[in-house]
Amino acid sequence: MVKPVPSGSRIIESPIGAREEVFPLPVTERFLAELVTDLFETYWERLIFGPLIEGAAYEIRAPRQPSKIGLMDGYLTIFFGRTHFHLCIGDNKGSPSAPTPPALRRHRRTRRAEFYRGLNVSSEPVTWGFRLFNGAGEQQMTVLFPNPFIGDDDEILDLPDWSRLAMWEDVLRRYTGREPDGRDRLARGFKCG
What we know:
Blueprint: E1 10-13, E2 19-25, H1 29-42, E3 48-50, E4 52-53, E5 56-57, E6 68-72, E7 75-80, E8 83-88, H2 102-108, E9 110-119, E10 125-134, E11 139-144, H3 166-176
């Protein structure tokens, strides 16, 4: 396992005006390959993933545990049988007969990786996740972690289920060295829209 990377968090405003606390992560191929592999091998049943971009939100659940995870020419590929996806997390060189142009290599590769907490108007965490952005600042993928306010069938829970923060606390501790700070249990509910 890669060594945890202590990271300071910072509050940002998303393009839609929502406040988020982000925990920057290294963008080395080794670190990202280990983290993404760990998430999909360990937590595949609990993950919701896909790009979340203006105008589209892909909230995909893995159909089964990955049958194979491979890394080739900078691309990490997660296979679930016939269904699979690719993430460019390293240097994509192409082939000797068709090398990838330098500008395209920079565009494709992950430039920003972060854990994040979405905050409500009182600055209390109400969503938790991990996301990757390419060299052009475009989102490659978001992984939504289990939410104590939302059940497995996307229903709003009457009472928070704080056990649903276990994944967030585990990966934050193992990959950043941060212990839970108590802030994750401040909010009392979640509102959509």
